[in-house]
Crp/Fnr family transcriptional regulator
Amino acid sequence: MDYIARRSDLPDEEIQWMLGLGEQRALRPGDAFCRIGQTHHEVGLLQSGILQVYSVSQRGEKVVLDLILPGHFALALHGVSRGLPSDVCIEAVTPCTVIAWPYELRRAAFARHPGWLRLDARLVEDAFNRKHRRYMGLRVLTAEERYDRMLSELPGIWQLLPQYLIASYLAITPQYLSRLKRRQQARQDDRAKGPGIPA
């Protein structure tokens, strides 16, 4: 619950109250925290592992929209904000541990302490900023720039992800991902060799 403590001004007893109402779940790779079409919405705090957020295109292809790392929340934000069924699936990529709460619990939390309302606003702001950054990256950056950003923002993490998932996350083909990896490796090899000795 360190994330809540850092992002809020809530007293410890309020955080412990919320923690006591959470359900800890262990997810295996491929297990869904939230399914497309789900109407019973939940909020999850990822403690360990990696979750992917994806939708399905009209051609039936999985489109990876986001990755959720430990310490961050999992929520079908579009569905809950409009009272609609979820239009995304949130699924474990690696073994995960998640603390889950019913989304409607937020009303009881708001009535208990104003700090929960302020935290809710910050979480929505964080989610919006993350989505905006993701959108701008897809629209403005080249595939190679997106790949370099992923390497810098997810050091070590990306090595745990299947290649097809990384390619979908970067909005490129697996073949082009292989090409980018070879370029990256070539750059690393050149740096390791250092400057050549002039003749």
Remarks:
- Residues 114-140 form the longest helix (27 residues).
- The chain has eight helices and eight strands.
- The radius of gyration is 20 Å.
